[in-house]
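[Discussion] Sanity-checking designs against the backbone

I'm trying to build intuition for which residues belong where. Below is a C-alpha cell string of 219 positions. I'd appreciate it if someone posts a full sequence so I can compare it with mine line by line.
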C-alpha cells in the first residue's frame, strides 16, 4: 500500500484464510495492532469489513493468508483530478445485526459497499443458532438484509455473494433458502466447501453491494 501512496486505513475489506481456526485468537491479537492505523481512524474506531475462511491448505505451507480491498481515491483515468479528492469511506453498524469489535458490518467507498461475513448468530444469545443448515442460511441472509436495509438499500442492490459451507452436500438446502431472498434478480455468486467455520457454524455469507448514490467528496 505504501508503494502506491495509500494509507492502511483506506482498506475497506479484509479476508483472512487460516489452515486452523484455532489460530484465530492469535491472528486477532496481531490484527488489532494494525487496525485502526491512523489517529483519525482511531478517533472514530474505524475497522474494515472482514471475513474469516478456513482453508485446507495454503501455498508454501503457510498457516495464514490475507487479501484486501482498498478504496482508491485517486481513481483511474479519465477521472478528473478535481473529482478524486476527499471521497468518503462510510462505515456503518446497526444494533439489529451482530456487531464485532474486530470489524465493521458494512463499509462503503465510491460505488461499492462491502458487507462483512455473516455467521448465523442468534442475537438473543450471541451464539450460533442451533438448527439445520436451512435455518442457519436464513439467519445469515436475514442479517445481511438487515444491514443492507439499515443503510437505505435493498437486497437487489447486491452484486456479488460469497458463501462458505461446512458440507458442500448442503448446497441444495442453502439454495432453497437463498432463492427466497433473491426471487428474481440473481447476483454473481461463489460457493466453496470448507473444513470448518468460526464457532462451529454450518454456513457463512458475505456480499458486495452496489452503491448508486456513491460516497460523495467531503465538503
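Best answer:
Here's mine. Compare freely.
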Amino acid at each position: 500500500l505504501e508503494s502506491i501512496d495509500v494509507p492502511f486505513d483506506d482498506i475497506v475489506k479484509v479476508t483472512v484464510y487460516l489452515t486452523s481456526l484455532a489460530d484465530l485468537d492469535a491472528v486477532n491479537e496481531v490484527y488489532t495492532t494494525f487496525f485502526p492505523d491512523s489517529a483519525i481512524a482511531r478517533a472514530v474506531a474505524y475497522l474494515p469489513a472482514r471475513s474469516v475462511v478456513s482453508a485446507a491448505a495454503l501455498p508454501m505451507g503457510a498457516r495464514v493468508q490475507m487479501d484486501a480491498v482498498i478504496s482508491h481515491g485517486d481513481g483511474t483515468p479519465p477521472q478528473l483530478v478535481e473529482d478524486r479528492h476527499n471521497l468518503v469511506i462510510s462505515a456503518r453498524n446497526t444494533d439489529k445485526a451482530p456487531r464485532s469489535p474486530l470489524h465493521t458490518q458494512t463499509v462503503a467507498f465510491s460505488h461499492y459497499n462491502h458487507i462483512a461475513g455473516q455467521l448465523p448468530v442468534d442475537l438473543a444469545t450471541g451464539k450460533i443458532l442451533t438448527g439445520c443448515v436451512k435455518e442457519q442460511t436464513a439467519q445469515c441472509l436475514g442479517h445481511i438484509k438487515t444491514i443492507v436495509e439499515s443503510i437505505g438499500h435493498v437486497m437487489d442492490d447486491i452484486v456479488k455473494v460469497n458463501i462458505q459451507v461446512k458440507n458442500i452436500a448442503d448446497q441444495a438446502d442453502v439454495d432453497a433458502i437463498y432463492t427466497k431472498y433473491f426471487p428474481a434478480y440473481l447476483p454473481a455468486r461463489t460457493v466453496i466447501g470448507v473444513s470448518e467455520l468460526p464457532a462451529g457454524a454450518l454456513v457463512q455469507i458475505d456480499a458486495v453491494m452496489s452503491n448508486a448514490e456513491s460516497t460523495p467528496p467531503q465538503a
